[in-house]
């Protein structure tokens, strides 16, 4: 029996044949799903169209390389395979081979393909044999390094003998250097103040030292700047404790931390010098700018100067680098925060921390407390401790009207807190109940509109609280929420279980991670999001309509400042009109200081000049009769009177003239006090002025007498020491006019009286008496009717309108401007300036007043002679000029006075001072032009040109 041969394990089976299981199932001619005839009509799984395969020998540009050509499958061969019967598997006999032959082992391994240099030329023209690399850079890093290290230096780069280091450590060292950190290659040199390279002549594979030098220099500059900025931060914390510089140092520190964090996070991704350069370039641009900025800011002497420089630098970047501009805007907001915080606390829109500012301290920021010196036209200086606006500590970008309004609002608010602590504006709960917005920078119109909306809500909330307070209802003041969420250590009075739970709670609290500070930090978030972003984060940001930089301070700060000024000024003015009766104080000045009360003028004239009253002078061995006493000026030789005489003669005049008869009390009861405790006093005089006062016949005999008045603290902003000095000047002159009126009336009695002993009165004396009386009455009428009356009436009408607007609650919701205390003070001062101009009391009018004083002195000398003649007394003790000489002097002086007045009538009127810092007054003008009224005086004195006629000169 023949044994069958063993199967050949290395034979290739006929997998292309159908399985025997399909025999009998497939019909003859039926094609299989898997077949070799791909062009059969029965097959629907392929596309019907035929693809034309380009021949290898085709001349087309885009052709298939020969290596990718498919073998030709003809139809005849296919049919031959289909019809030819399958042959049995072919058994291949293999010869025995030596398994230990080295050639057999090598042939058994698959050949490893070597890396080739692929080029586009080789792909397009595969038949063309590849040539050797033309450029040395195409030959690889090893070839380039060999060329650089060749002593003959074929590249002429002088890089032979350089130390070759690994690429990754060197790139890591450069990245650390750009962050200001040392490494094995670079260390910090304290003497040079810069990083230095410890190992000289370094390079990495594939790069020459010249190529690395540019990137090394940039990384070195970046690292040095990082170190310098870090030193600036540390020195600022130690040696410059001002709030603005600390805020700047904090911003720079945040910048350094974020930059180092971003660079450190991308360190593992840096694999080439180009990637490193793409990281270092934006960082260097920012750090180099801040290095220059810090050097400029170090020259500033104050935080306000630093803010001004910072604002100018930020404005310069308006159309520059977008990221750097956004960073500078955030830095400006940070550095401005301390100054703006104090402004908010001063105005009353933010609670004050620590000790509030007061007049006992030196002041803070733009508010300084000092002895304010008020100097009048004659150099008289008076000092008073008060708040002063220090314009040196106001940044240059803050408008003058805004800074003035801030200061005046805070000054008024402190007076309210002192005298009306129960007012809603003075309560701490107002901040939580009304939620006032903060003073901050706003750079877009949307933010500005949102600010205006929040300001309107705050103003309406405060007005509602004020209405509740005025109506007697207590406004709802929400208590300040307790923001302390820490663990409270309270052990007493607790059980063991409670202590255990408390201990567990404390452990849980301590195990919690620290809150992220940078989560709400706008500067950190800005740098994290946009430091390494390609291009601008917002492609259309440059087309956005934003306010001009010159308008940003006004648009950012004015809404809140003006709203707070309206609230404080309205309540301040309402209180001084209702509670503190400012109209009564001003009426008091009109009646007494300006001699606007007829009863007071009559009582004062008799008390000072009437010779028929009982003398208040103390006489030896003579008892007083108990009648009405007076000083009897003009009828006595001893002068000035003693203080006791002044009290006896002037006692009760002010009170009796101010209060009506129905309110006067009997003797022994408490007398009502006048507003401001007004009373008669003695003026401080120089030695020269005292010498003039000793003569009872001189015009200056009553210059020592003055009215003493001290305004209440809440009215001190309106009735200031400067205004009181102006009142004093006017009262001093009007007292002389009052004396001249009395003297002029006495001249008529001395010449034409029944009891006169002057019988042979000359024509010169009669003419002198008539002209003197006409001149005095004309001057008096002009001073009172044209100088004081119209100006004061206009001022009172303005006060009536102001008070009516304040009492009208329907206007409270209106955003119309509100009159501030500073406006009232300015208007009050303008009225007094206008009166002083009419009364020749301005400094430039002193020559005119000097001529007027000489005329009055001449009349006083003539009245003394007339009195002696009327009494029939001898003029033996009189050594002065005669009546004819006095009349001639009088005529000359009057003619000079009239000539000067004619010259003054041709000039323009008085320019009153403009109101300063008035942002709530829409119609504020630079100056108020007053009418020139000197022509009215000329009409009163000589309507027909009497003093200018030639006949008058020869009389």
From TrEMBL:
**GO CC annotations on file:** gamma-tubulin complex; microtubule; spindle pole; spindle pole body
Protein name (Swiss-Prot/TrEMBL): Spindle pole body component
Using the record's annotation, list all stretches that form the Gamma tubulin complex component protein N-terminal domain.
173-502
| Gamma tubulin complex component C-terminal domain segment(s) | 583-947
Instruction: State the organism of origin.
Output: Pestalotiopsis fici (strain W106-1 / CGMCC3.15140)
InterPro entries from the xrefs? GCP, GCP_C, GCP_C_sf, GCP_N
**Family the UniProt entry places it in:** Belongs to the TUBGCP family.
Please provide the Gene Ontology terms (biological process) for this protein: cytoplasmic microtubule organization; meiotic cell cycle; microtubule nucleation; mitotic cell cycle; spindle assembly
Subcellular locations according to the entry: Cytoplasm, Cytoskeleton, Microtubule organizing center
The record's principal subcellular location, in a coarse class, is cytoplasm
Q: Which UniProt keywords apply?
A: Cytoplasm, Cytoskeleton, Microtubule
Could you give a GO molecular-function term held by this entry?
Answer: gamma-tubulin binding
């Amino acid at each position: 029996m023949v044994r069958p041969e063993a199967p050949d394990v290395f034979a290739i089976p006929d997998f292309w044949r159908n399985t025997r299981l399909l025999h009998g199932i497939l019909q003859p001619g039926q094609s299989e799903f898997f077949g070799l005839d791909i062009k059969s009509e029965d097959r629907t799984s392929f596309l019907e169209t035929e693809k034309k395969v380009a021949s290898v020998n085709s001349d087309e540009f885009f052709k298939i390389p020969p290596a990718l050509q498919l073998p030709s499958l003809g139809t005849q061969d296919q049919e031959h395979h289909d019809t030819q019967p399958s042959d049995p598997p072919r058994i291949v006999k293999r010869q025995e081979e030596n398994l230990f032959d080295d050639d057999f082992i090598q042939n058994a391994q698959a050949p490893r393909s070597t890396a080739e240099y692929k080029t586009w030329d080789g792909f397009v023209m595969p038949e063309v044999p590849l040539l050797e690399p033309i450029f040395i850079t195409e030959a690889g890093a090893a070839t380039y390094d060999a060329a650089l290290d060749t002593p003959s230096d074929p590249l002429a780069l002088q890089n032979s003998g350089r130390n070759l280091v690994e690429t990754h450590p060197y790139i890591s060292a450069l990245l650390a250097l750009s962050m200001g950190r040392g490494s094995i290659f670079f260390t910090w040199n304290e003497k040079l103040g810069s990083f230095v390279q410890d190992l000289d002549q370094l390079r990495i594979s594939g790069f020459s030292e010249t190529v690395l030098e540019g990137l090394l220099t940039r990384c070195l500059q970046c690292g040095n700047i990082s170190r310098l900025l870090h030193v600036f931060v540390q020195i600022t914390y130690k040696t410059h404790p001002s709030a603005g510089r600390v805020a700047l140092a904090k911003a720079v520190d945040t910048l350094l931390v974020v930059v180092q964090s971003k660079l450190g996070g991308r360190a593992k991704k840096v694999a080439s010098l180009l990637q490193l350069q793409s990281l270092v370039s934006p960082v260097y641009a920012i750090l180099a700018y801040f290095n220059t900025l810090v050097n400029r800011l170090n020259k500033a002497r104050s935080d306000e100067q630093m803010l001004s420089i910072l604002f100018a630098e930020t404005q310069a970047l308006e159309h520059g680098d977008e990221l750097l501009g956004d960073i500078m805007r955030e830095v400006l907001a940070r550095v401005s925060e301390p100054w703006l915080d104090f402004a908010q606390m001063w105005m009353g829109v933010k609670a004050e921390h620590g000790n509030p500012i007061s007049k006992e301290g030196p002041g803070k920021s733009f508010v300084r407390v000092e002895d304010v010196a008020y100097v009048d036209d004659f150099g008289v200086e008076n000092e008073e401790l008060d708040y002063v606006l220090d314009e040196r500590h106001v940044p240059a970008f803050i408008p003058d009207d805004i800074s003035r309004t801030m200061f005046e609002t805070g000054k008024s608010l402190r007076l309210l807190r002192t005298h009306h602590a129960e007012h809603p504006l003075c309560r701490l709960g107002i901040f939580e109940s009304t939620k006032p917005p903060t003073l901050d920078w706003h750079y877009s119109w949307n933010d500005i509109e949102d600010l205006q909306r929040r300001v309107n809500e705050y103003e309406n909330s405060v007005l509602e609280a004020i209405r509740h307070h005025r109506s007697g209802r207590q406004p709802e003041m929400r208590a300040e929420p307790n923001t302390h969420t820490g663990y409270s250590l309270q052990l007493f009075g607790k059980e063991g279980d409670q202590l255990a739970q408390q201990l567990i709670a404390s452990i849980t609290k301590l195990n919690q991670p620290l809150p992220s500070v940078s989560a709400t930090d706008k500067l950190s978030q800005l740098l994290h999001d946009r430091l390494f972003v390609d291009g601008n984060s917002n492609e259309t940001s440059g087309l956005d309509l934003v306010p001009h930089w010159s308008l940003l301070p006004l648009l950012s700060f004015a809404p809140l400042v003006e709203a707070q000024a309206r609230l404080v000024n309205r309540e301040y003015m309402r209180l001084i009109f209702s509670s503190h009766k400012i109209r009564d104080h001003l009426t008091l000045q009109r009646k007494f200081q300006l001699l606007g009360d007829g009863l007071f003028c009559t009582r004062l004239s008799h008390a000072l000049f009437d010779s028929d009253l009982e003398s208040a002078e103390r006489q030896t061995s003579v008892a007083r009769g108990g009648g009405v006493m007076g000083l009897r000026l003009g009828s006595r030789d001893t002068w000035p009177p003693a203080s006791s005489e002044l009290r006896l003669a002037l006692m009760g005049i002010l009170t009796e003239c101010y209060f009506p008869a129905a309110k006067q009390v009997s003797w022994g009861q408490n007398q009502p006090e006048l507003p401001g405790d007004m009373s008669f006093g003695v003026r401080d005089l120089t030695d020269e002025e005292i010498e003039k006062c000793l003569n009872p016949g001189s015009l200056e005999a009553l210059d020592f007498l003055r009215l003493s008045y001290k305004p209440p603290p809440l009215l001190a902003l309106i009735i200031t020491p400067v205004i009181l000095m102006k009142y004093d000047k006017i009262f001093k002159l009007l007292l002389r006019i009052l004396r001249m009126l009395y003297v002029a009336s006495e001249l008529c009695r001395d010449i034409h009286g029944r009891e006169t002993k002057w019988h042979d009165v000359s024509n010169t004396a009669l003419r002198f008496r008539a002209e003197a009386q006409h001149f005095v009455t004309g001057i008096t009428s002009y001073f009172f009717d044209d100088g004081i009356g119209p100006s004061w009436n206009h001022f009172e009408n303005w006060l009536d309108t102001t008070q009516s607007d304040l009492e009208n609650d329907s206007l409270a919701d209106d955003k119309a401007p509100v009159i501030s205390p500073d406006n009232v003070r300015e208007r009050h001062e303008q009225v007094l300036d206008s009166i002083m101009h009419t009364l020749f009391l301005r400094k430039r009018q002193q020559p005119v007043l000097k001529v007027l004083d000489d005329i009055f002195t001449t009349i006083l000398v003539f009245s003394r002679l007339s009195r002696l003649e009327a009494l029939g007394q001898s003029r033996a003790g009189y050594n002065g000029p005669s009546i004819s000489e006095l009349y001639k002097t009088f005529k000359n002086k009057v003619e000079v006075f009239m000539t000067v007045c004619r010259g003054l009538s041709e000039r323009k009127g008085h320019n009153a001072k403009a109101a300063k810092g008035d942002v709530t007054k829409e119609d504020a003008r630079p100056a108020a032009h007053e009418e020139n009224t000197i022509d009215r005086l000329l009409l009163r004195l000589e309507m027909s040109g009497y003093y200018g006629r030639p006949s008058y000169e020869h009389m």
